[in-house]
Amino acid sequence: MNFIVKESGFDKKKVMLDGTRFFVGNGYMGVRGTLEEFGKEELCGCTLAGVYDQVGEGWRELVNAPNGLYTRLFVDGAEMNALEVEPLAHEMELDLRRAVLTRETEYDKVKVKTERFASADNLHLLMLRYSVTAKQDCEITVDTGIDANIWDINGPHLPTVDEGAVGELLYIDGETAELGNTVAVCGVMKTDFDYKLERVVTENRRSLRVFSFAMKAGETATFVKYITIYTSVDGVADPLKTAQEAVKTVSQQSFTELLAAHERVWAERWEAADVQITGDDEAQLALRYNIYIMYSNVPTHTDKVAIPARGLAGQVYKGAMFWDTEVYMMPLFNYTHPDYARNLAYYRVNTLDGAREKAREYNFDGAFYQWECQETGKDACTDFAVIDIFTGRPLRTHFRDQQIHISGDVAYGIWEHYIATGDEAVLLDGGAEAILECARFFYSYAYFKKTKNRYELLEVTCADEYHERVHNNFYTNIMAKYTLEMATKVLDLLKEKYPKKYEELMTKLDYAKDVPNIREMAELLYVPAPDENGIIEQFDGYNKLECPTVAELKSRIIDPREHLGAPVGLMTETQIIKQADVVLGLLLFSDRYPLEIRRKNWEHYEPRTEHGSTLSAAIYAILAAQVGFSDWAYKFFMKTATIDLSGNYRLYVGDLFIGGLHTAANGGTWMAAVQGFGGFKFDGEKLIVNPVLPEKWQSLSYKVICRGCRYEVEATKKQVTVRSAEGRLPVSVFGQEYSMESGEITVAL
Ligand code: BGC
Q: What pLDDT does 659 receive?
């Protein structure tokens, strides 16, 4: 049972990466795995989902709450801070099964052990148990409480705060600069020993209790910190009062009781979502880590936000949501926790008005979804997002105005949720409207080329991102086509089953005139086709670009931080792409292209892919598994699975810090295991299970929920078994269909 991520030894250089790697979170808050004695320089962060703020002209980003874990330890007057005093031993241990982070540090005179979790049972609760064991008689002083001197990228987001103490209870609250949202953090500490309270400090953005006690060699002293966080975004009238009352209530329970409630939620999650591999411990642990990260970041309490591209591991990338959500993250939740996926789908319904506004801003119809979306539905992406590190000048990029595939991805996400769950509620509550609006957007964006009797999409940014202002990008066009097809399906479904709703929407959206256009464009939208060699050109003119090797092109890089994409980056004038584009299109629409075409394009594009985005590897892994490139599939699987564990990723683009979790890769890892090696696909009527295990793996087992019923798949190299106590949908294994009437089938491979 491989659930433990461990690291031994303390290395100052790893503080930033470890803060991300040892993340704990519950979708409401994300707590970086920094040590309790650390401060803002070490990038301590308790990042709050859905609480955004803008200071002056800086980027609007997520707000970090004051740090309730803050604790400094003094032994015989000397501070034990791993940065100052080299520990004799140091170990971090993240238990993925229980979602608990443990730290053990040994110094000359004491050993420190802490355990923390962000409760999955009570999302406002962060818990810390802190133990000191004396190796010799000594005097201990502890300085613990809440620290509002916190890491901000574009802050300060809580410019002024109130520090306070009421008896044993400490608090800090402050208001965000832009919207005046209150963020309140309260803390209560309980000890199992007597101490002398030296002083209570409520100044300089800190609320602390300083206490001391004597220890004899061999003794252990333990205290528990109960930390509650509420904000006005939670819809409570008085966040401070609510946090104070909450901390009083929870502190009547023991750490163990609260931990047990937290563990129960995680046990249920692992029951639904664990994927088991035999024969490869490294892959097993990495895969579980990625599932853990996804479940620690998914908002279970709200549909006003989704999962940011860098998770809740800080303010990086503005805490914004991208297409990453629909294409890389929703599949995991659609098939293991559809109620969480429903929140993600509703998030796009909630931001539909913003998407309509954006379409109008550019003189288009329908819904042009935000490239970078926060809670308001406005696009947080700017036109001059990247600074040229050579000239210091801003570069005009076209992520915001031309990466139009986003509207297709959003529609796809909503529709795929419906396919997986059969739940029409999201469609009826705005999902259908969003799909229709996205289709209408593509119609208004398209250009009808009379001479060729086809619609084209001109001036777009490829999903690959190194190429902007190009025509007829394969991924964009096929996704747009699918959107138009989905829209026609939605129209048919509503008309047939919900005629009143259909009429309502037709009137509300004034859509009747659009229906024939949408149907026509679904037929006539041009999607670049395979040429005589089976290769699909990524966009018009791509084949004419220079084609160096990735290594050769990389050797031309002058500065590791330089921006490689458009308008003037190195890659733009070449065939080298940042991430999967044609290969992604072929994967999502694999039923439209024969295996041979998918294989040829994988072979063609992989050497041209720099994999400069962490979104790339998972897609290459899945398609490689499908087309029989097993070794490559494994290589790319391990690459995506270990991104956040290894810290092997880019930290800067231009002068922009982009470190943090890589939630698309985290979700992509599940996809690569289950959809790649597990060969799982669901078309709404039957499960498709075509497993292809990597050499090393003896077996792979996973669970999926399709249309409300649980299925369990167990594959070895010789056979595949599908079980379900409740589901009776047929299963197709390598093209042969089997009935699940008996609740179990085993097929020899
Ligand atoms: C990728 C995009 C992605 C974004 C956020 C970029 O580097 O190229 O496709 O949406 O990061 O993860």
A: 79
Statement: residue 650 has pLDDT above 80 = no
pLDDT tens for 699-710 read 999 999 999 999
The answer to whether the bond into 159 is cis (omega within 30° of 0) is no
DSSP state of 426: H
The preferred substitution site among 293, 322, 373, 404 for testing ligand 1, maximizing ligand atoms within 8 Å of CB, is 322
> What spacing in Å lies between the alpha carbon of 489 and ligand 1's midpoint?
30
**pLDDT at 654 exceeding the cut of 70:** no
338-350 vs 352-361: helix axis angle to the nearest 10? 40
Backbone region of residue 101 per phi and psi (left: phi > 0; alpha: psi in -120 to 50; beta: other values): beta
Q: Of all atoms in ligand 1, which is nearest to the CA of residue 465?
A: 8
DSSP of 217-280, one letter per residue? TT-EEEEEEEEEEEEGGGT-S-HHHHHHHHHHHHTTS-HHHHHHHHHHHHHHHHHHH--EEES-
pLDDT per residue as tens digits for the range 35-82: 999 999 999 999 999 999 999 999 999 999 999 999 999 999 999 999
Q: 199 has which bridge partners?
A: 210
What distance separates the 2 farthest-apart alpha carbons in the chain?
A: 90
H or E element, residue 640: helix 630-641
Question: Can the peptide bond before residue 156 be classed as cis, meaning omega within 30 degrees of 0?
Answer: yes
Ligand 1 nearest-atom number relative to CA 310: 12
- Under DSSP, the state recorded for 323 is T
CA separation for the pair 219, 460 (Å, rounded): 67
CA distance 228 to 208: 15
Query: Helix count (H) and strand count (E) of the chain?
Result: 22, 33
Task: Kindly give the distance from the C-alpha atom of residue 399 to the centroid of ligand 1, in angstroms, as a whole number.
Answer: 10
Please state the pTM of the whole predicted model. 0.97
- Report the residue among 321, 324, 403 best suited for mutation to probe ligand 1: largest number of ligand atoms under 8 A from its CB: 324
Q: Are 145 and 225 a contacting pair, CB within 8 Å?
A: no
Q: What element of type H or E holds 304?
A: none
Report DSSP letters for 642-711, one per residue: THHHHT-S--EETTEE--S--HHHHHHHHHIIIIIIS-EEE-SS-EEE-----TT-SEEEEEEEETTEEE
Q: How far apart are CA 219 and CA 695, in angstroms?
A: 51
* Residue 737: strand pairing partners: 732
Q: Which residues contact 227 (CB under 8 A, 6 or more apart)?
A: 68, 69, 125, 126, 127, 128, 146, 185, 186, 187, 247
Phi-psi region of 561 (alpha: psi -120 to 50; beta: other; left: phi over 0): alpha
The closest residue, in CA terms, to atom 7 on ligand 1 is: 613
- Cβ neighbours of 594 (radius 10 Å): 11
Q: Please give the distance, rounded to the nearest whole angstrom, from the Cα atom of residue 311 to the centre of ligand 1.
A: 13
User: With contact defined as beta carbons under 8 Å apart, do 44 and 71 qualify?
Assistant: no
Q: Which two tokens stand for residue 659?
A: 């470190």
**DSSP assignment, residue 147?**
E
Q: What DSSP state is assigned to residue 406?
A: H
Whole-number Å distance, alpha carbon 739 to ligand 1 midpoint, is 41
Summary mean pLDDT of the chain: 96
**384-421 confidence digits (pLDDT tens):** 988 899 999 999 999 999 999 999 999 999 999 999 99
Which of 615, 658, 661, 662 has most ligand 1 atoms within 8 Å of its beta carbon, as the pocket-test mutant? 615
Name the β-bridge partners of 455.
Answer: 448, 525
Q: Concatenated DSSP letters for 451-488?
A: GGTEEE--SB--TTSS--SBS--HHHHHHHHHHHHHHH
Active site residues: 465
Q: What amino acid occupies position 718?
A: K
Backbone angles phi, psi at 143, to 5 degrees: -120, 100
Q: Residue 400 in 3-state DSSP?
A: helix
* Ligand 1 atom having least distance to the Cα of 463: 9
